[in-house]
Amino acid sequence: MGKVVMYSSVSVDGFVADDNDQPGPLFDWLTSGDVPLDDSGALKVSQTSYDYTRPYWDQIGVTVVGRHVFDMTDGWDGTPPGGVDHVVVVTHRPAPEGWDPGAPFHFVDGVEAAVARAQELAGDRVVEVAAGDVGGQVLAAGLVDEVRMDVVPVVLGSGKRYFGSVDAQHLLEDPDAVIQGDRVLHLRYRVRR
């Protein structure tokens, strides 16, 4: 079974979006380089960021997100982002009216059931969990193996926290990757068991 990784770009003060759910400059590093990160050509990063990010993205089999993110993105028009095979949406509500039942999206009630479904779909590939409220719930449930952060040099001051509303201490190991890209610091931690 593949590992479960909590991941996002994050401000230096720990936010994944501002109070209006806008990322501001958090994703600027994805368009400020000269090395294409995907086939679209829209994402271009530094060579250092490419060498760190591309191999990780290639390992992702399933992404787990909350219903809020799904609704904000209009379900990516039924196509999982970043070439991921499946998206598992944590929600208490059914799929939206008129949703294509053939789209590789799975609507699951509860984080434990969502991670179990994602691991089933991913096999030995990585299950990526979006940071924020759902990511924090998955961490609190003891289901996260690794935390990855792309730390961007900006202070948002307030907004949506990387770890959501986690209200207990969770220990991480020392970082096993600290990579400086252009306008981003890539960090990777294993969760201490």
TrEMBL record:
<dbReference type="InterPro" id="IPR002734">
    <property type="entry name" value="RibDG_C"/>
</dbReference>
<dbReference type="Pfam" id="PF01872">
    <property type="entry name" value="RibD_C"/>
</dbReference>
<protein>
    <submittedName>
        <fullName>Dihydrofolate reductase family protein</fullName>
    </submittedName>
</protein>
<dbReference type="InterPro" id="IPR024072">
    <property type="entry name" value="DHFR-like_dom_sf"/>
</dbReference>
<dbReference type="GO" id="GO:0009231">
    <property type="term" value="P:riboflavin biosynthetic process"/>
</dbReference>
<dbReference type="GO" id="GO:0008703">
    <property type="term" value="F:5-amino-6-(5-phosphoribosylamino)uracil reductase activity"/>
</dbReference>
<feature type="domain" description="Bacterial bifunctional deaminase-reductase C-terminal">
    <location>
        <begin position="111"/>
        <end position="170"/>
    </location>
</feature>
